[in-house]
UniProtKB/TrEMBL annotation, chain A:
Annotated Putative Se/S carrier protein-like domain residues: 6-72
InterPro entries: Se/S_carrier-like (IPR021778)
Species whose genome carries this gene: Thermohalobacter berrensis
Protein's recorded name: Putative Se/S carrier protein-like domain-containing protein
UniProtKB/TrEMBL annotation, chain B:
Signal peptide range: none
One GO MF term attached to the UniProt entry: hydro-lyase activity
Gene3D superfamilies: 1.20.1270.370, 3.40.50.11890, 3.40.50.11900
Obligatory cofactor(s): [4Fe-4S] cluster
Name recorded for this polypeptide: 3-hydroxyacyl-ACP dehydratase
Matches recorded under InterPro entries: FldB/FldC_alpha/beta, YjiM-like
Organismal lineage: Bacteria, Bacillati, Bacillota, Tissierellia, Tissierellales
Similarity remark: Belongs to the FldB/FldC dehydratase alpha/beta subunit family.
Length: 83, 431
């Protein structure tokens, strides 16, 4: 089974600050709409490979100015809209 | 997560209904966009814009309004953005690309008109589109009968200014369109309280031209043998161009183009070799209408260009810059805008020339003629286009469809057969 890890933020500016760091550190990421299971508010989160979770947590400890609302790992499943 | 509910409430939105709309977007976007392989990294910016489509951008419009600025909602590529921006107002394209809004639209409109009109009206009367809710004034035009009459209904909700677009391109039609641009200018000045001067208009012309040039740069990368970006992604960028912050959009799209040009140099493509290259022509696709592109690109084809209002018609040809007088500037605007080849004109031979030219420029293998159900002008025009393409030996297939996904299996089957034919044709020519 494959998983995805999502980082949620109190505001998009925190998300963009983390994006900058991930880019610098060459950690693969995708900006995505926050999955509904995690939050009901529309907005961005950052999806990473679950294997990079620790690296990202370390980065966040070193950069306490970047606020997050949590890191969650969900089972990867894509709903198919087109038959 | 940023909480935009207070903002939405202040815009008099139906929060409960809007929540249902928000529920679908993440999964739908995941299925259509995030499932693609080897997407350019620069697409993260557009993921960001879509994720914040009813959030950050609406907040920016709200801030602009708090500072005394105005927001104008538009529906059509004939409305000159230059006039809006030269009065320090912001122009945004309005919602109308989802099935979600159609039932509300059908409450006040007949069922047998195009889904774009039904969805737009539905989006407004259901109070679930924050762009509609942010608009101080709507700007309509007379590109079809359905829209023309729908303005009268929308006017009950938001003041609307309608530009009378001529349907022929004779000298007196040009004069008429010039007069319409002047009337629009007066209206925008009255609404904003800002005078449109030569300098301001010239700056706005330059700014909008920059947006056009970056979109052209993006489309140029799609002429490459190995496509550095999918058609779906390119479509998304053009759709976003209609409402995003201009400077940020231009900067981010230039950055993406740098990446795409590097991909071309390295020979990196997003599709397998010999994937048929498709030119899509026809009616506009408003967010989140990604249906035809998605079906094409999951049935063994790739879209290389769109001859549509959410494609080349939006950005081809720039407005002449650095004219000294307002009158000359308005002439330049008249020339550029009346040069768009929309099916509302008769005759409309320019569009046929455009399709053939783009087919060659983008090295396409076939054309998909796509029209929204009940769009008379585009459906009728198919006959003339088909005759001309037949004469040129260009394969074309017509798909008429609305926003519902029920016919997607059927369309997929037709597309697969069409692509097989294109492949055989290509290998026969190669021999």
């Amino acid at each position: 089974m494959q998983n995805n890890t999502y980082i949620l933020f109190p505001s998009h500016t925190d998300g963009l600050s983390l994006e900058k760091l991930l880019k610098e550190k060459k950690i693969k990421y995708t900006i995505v709409p926050t999955p509904r299971q995690l939050s009901k508010c529309c907005g961005i989160s950052i999806k990473i490979n679950p294997n990079d979770k620790e690296k990202v947590e370390e980065l966040l400890i070193k950069n306490p100015n970047i606020k997050i609302e949590g890191i969650y790992t969900l089972e990867k499943k894509t709903k198919k809209f087109f038959v | 997560m940023a909480d935009y509910r207070e903002l939405w409430k202040s815009l008099d939105m139906d929060l409960e209904k809007h929540d249902k709309l928000c529920e679908v977007l993440p999964e739908f976007y995941e299925d259509v966009y995030l499932s693609q392989k080897n997407r350019p990294e620069g697409m993260n910016y557009y993921n960001f814009v879509i994720s914040e489509v009813h959030g950050l951008r609406i907040k920016e419009l709200d801030d602009h309004k708090q500072n005394g600025g105005k927001v104008l909602g538009t529906f059509c590529v004939f409305v000159p953005d230059e006039i809006i921006f030269s009065a320090d107002a912001i122009g945004v394209g309005l919602c109308g690309g989802s099935d979600f809004w159609v039932p509300d639209g059908e409450k006040v409109l007949p069922r047998n008109i195009c889904p774009l009109i039904k969805a737009s009206v539905g989006a407004k009367i259901s109070g679930t589109c924050p762009y509609f809710q942010s608009a101080d004034m709507l700007v309509g035009e007379t590109t079809c009968d359905g829209k023309k009459k729908a303005w009268e209904i929308l006017n009950d909700y938001t003041p609307i200014h309608v530009m009378d677009l001529p349907q022929m391109k004779r000298e007196n039609d040009k004069k008429h369109w010039k007069d319409e641009i002047k009337l629009f200018m007066d209206k925008v000045e009255e609404l904003t309280g800002n005078k449109i001067t030569e300098e301001r208009l010239n700056n706005a012309i330059k700014l909008i031209n920059r947006k056009r040039r970056v979109l052209q740069r993006l489309y140029n990368t799609r002429k490459a043998d190995k496509l550095p970006i999918s058609g779906k992604d390119a479509l998304l960028i053009t759709q976003i161009a209609f409402y995003d912050d201009l400077e940020r959009f231009i900067q981010k799209t230039e950055e993406l183009c740098d990446e795409l040009e590097r991909r071309i140099e390295k020979g990196v493509g997003v599709f397998p070799e010999n994937t048929p290259r498709i030119l899509v022509t026809g009616t506009p696709m408003a967010i989140p209408n990604w249906k035809i592109h998605h079906l094409i690109e999951t049935s063994g084809g790739s879209v290389v260009c769109e001859e549509t209002c959410t494609g080349t018609r939006y950005f081809e040809n720039t407005v002449k810059e650095n004219n000294k007088t307002l009158d000359e500037q308005i002439d330049a605007l008249t020339d550029r805008y009346l040069n768009i080849n929309c099916a509302c004109f008769t005759p409309n031979e320019g569009r046929i020339d455009d399709i053939i030219r783009l087919y060659k420029e983008y090295n396409a293998d076939g054309v998909i003629y796509n029209t929204l159900s009940f769009c008379h002008t585009y459906s009728v025009e198919y006959k003339k286009v088909k005759e001309a393409l037949d004469k040129e030996g260009i394969p074309v297939m017509m798909i008429e469809s609305d926003y519902s996904l029920q016919d997607s299996g059927q369309i997929k089957t037709r597309l697969e057969a069409f692509f097989e034919m294109l492949k055989e044709r290509k290998s026969a020519y190669a021999k």
